[in-house]
What we know:
4 helices, 69% helix
Amino acid sequence: MAEGRLAFDGCESCPLAPAVSCVFAAIGTVGNALCVAVMSRRALRDSTTSFLLIVLAVIDQLVLWTDLMRQWLRYGYEVDMRTVSRTACKMHK
């Protein structure tokens, strides 16, 4: 699988791709929110490890939404975010 591509990338005729990406987004969002909620508890808040895991969950969420947004735009509107502008292309890479 090429770098920067999801498992269903390149399967334009696959009708399940948007549904699969919605499931990934939902599971990932819930998981990252739970991670932030648990690591923000009073008993764990002062730990460096807890802080790093919170930062990791937030960055993971941003990457998840950015990549899945590109997929939704490709499948729903036939627009590739990477071809819209240089900034959008650099943000995605």
